[in-house]
Amino acid sequence: MVNKSTLAWRTSVLVLLAAAVPLGLHWHDNQQQVETEAMLDASVTVKTISHVHIDSLGDSVWSPTSGSGFLISSDSCELLTNHHVIAEAARIEVFPRRQSDSIGIAATIVNSNPRSDIAILRMNSCNDIAQANLGDSDLLRPGDEVYAVGNPLGRNPDSISRGIVSHTERLTSGLIPFLQTDASISRGSSGGALFNKQGEVVGINTAIVATANGNNIGVSYALPINIVKKEMEILHAGPPTWGHAGIEEFLVGLTKREASFFGVPAERAAVIVTESPSSGPSKGKLSAKDVIYEINNISVTSVKQAKRLISSFYPGDKISFNLVRSGETLEVAVTLEEGWKNEETPGPDYYLGHLGIDLEKWDEDDGSRGRFDSPVITQVHSLGPAHIAHITSSQKTIARNGPLVIPIQLNVKTVSGIVLDGTYHLVESVDTIEQLASEAFALNTPMLLEVETWGRENPLKFNQPMQRLSTSFHAVVPALTSAIPPGEADTELGMAPSNPALRQVAYYKSERGR
């Protein structure tokens, strides 16, 4: 029989254990707490507008995009994002967490690489953004918990989702092995950070597997941060660079069985060259129907792997291809050339006036368009004030009228009013707009443009009259043109056309001299 003292002792132990268990669980929960606020504070939304171009119908068109990013240096205000987020950008704005202003922080491209899909941006300021801590993606294992931060669909900034790592080296359509996760991301999340539980960035959210409608099916891909770190060193040193053999677009994969028909030894897979290169480093060295089974003594397993092997070397490197040609095994050496091609960035358009838009008064209906009391926007110029203010021009479409296919006005954009210095002005002429813009420019103050969009309830019924569909307001900062007409020079001041800054001064004087 248990005595009273022993029973009391056992009871005390049980009470202590009962109290210790919840305390231990609370301690464990605190130890495992994930600092999601820090993840969000380091993340930003990246918004861009593309350059304006003229389409086949003569309309000026441009498009906005939205992505994500995260700060990597508080000293230089640099952030990381995907190249495809800023690939067509004429203007880039960054919006930190809790940004309430409709105007973001201006950013420029330090460097970017379309092959790795990585871009480094530099912001004008970054005072309210936390610097992200970069982790080690090589430590990740399938099943590890991760957190994706971004701006899904371009409408949900500061969003965070949780998932696990499904695979640590997944090759898709590109040449870089991705981290595969089930953390939910959507369009607009590209360029955002993938964090581990410790709050370290282990990847850049880059792509998803989607349905035909673009919906995520639960498979997301992120660039491993260790690969990103190496790429950052290259991008900070200069333009991106990788080796190019001149056959990459001509390669088709062969399984081991298929390769054996060409006499490839030792049951190896291979790639076959479908066309003889007519230019580049492999011209005269590799030919159509060459079957390559080794590159620099590394066995070829697929087209993706072969391309990745070639591009892992640098321009000027000599690599060897072990191949079968007409039943004979050969070793062919090729000196690689530069794979990166620099594309010239479009400059700003030349425009007259202060708004960067062309306006017309449509007093009469010519049959394909309506009659409007306010001036019609017929063209928007790239990087002009209207373009920067996200104003678009009127658009046409192609329609069938009996046996004829003709261009028909799809919609019309008109400037119906202007607010300047607290006063609303009803706009009925093009001259009124330019006069008010000139006044705003002289006062160095923005103006608010009221833009009406007109269209038909059924766009296919182009014989119907147009109706007002919507009204929007745009804050515009009037400015002088930032480019000059090609080949023109200011003969009065002797200025060369290659100096746009001087030409701005000349244009300013000519405007004021009228």
User: Roughly what fraction of the amino acids lie in strands?
Assistant: 35-45%
What distance lies between the first and last C-alpha atoms, to the nearest angstrom?
115 Å
Mean pLDDT: 85
CATH topology of the largest domain: Thrombin, subunit H
Main sheet specs: 6 strands, antiparallel, barrel
CATH architectural label of the largest domain: Beta Barrel
Helix and strand content put the structural class at: alpha+beta
Number of helices: 9
User: If strands are numbered along the chain, what order do they take across the biggest sheet?
Assistant: 1-4-5-8-7-6
Oligomer: single chain
Poorly predicted segments: 23-31, 489-514
Radius of gyration: 31 Å
Please state the overall shape, judged from the principal axes of the Cα atoms. Answer: globular
State the total count of DSSP E strands.
Answer: 30
CATH class (first level) name of the largest domain: Mainly Beta
